[in-house]
Specification:
- The protein has 3 helices and no strands.
- It is an all-alpha fold.
- It is elongated.
- The protein starts with a helix and ends with a helix.
- The model has no long low-confidence stretch (mean pLDDT about 95).
Amino acid sequence: MTEDVVTRAAALLKGHRDSIDRLDAILVFTLAERFKHTQAVGVLKAQHDLPPSDPAREENQIARLQDLATQADLDPEFAKKFLNFVIQEVIKHHELHQS
């Protein structure tokens, strides 16, 4: 390989990594915003003696995200696992508000 090819590959790699870093930041800030809202929901549920989880909504959200994942060319099973993880964290927070 010539130095030009290696230099070009390094530049492409840097560009991809820069994009990945920006996307990771977007994910973190998006999750933070999501959890701000779910915390507010948890407080509201506790104030009105509502259960910390809503299995019907969770099922609908999982189906919705799997559909979005398919549209986005993302593995829908990965999307389901990810959302299940997030939902379990939210439920933990809601249970804390109940106590």
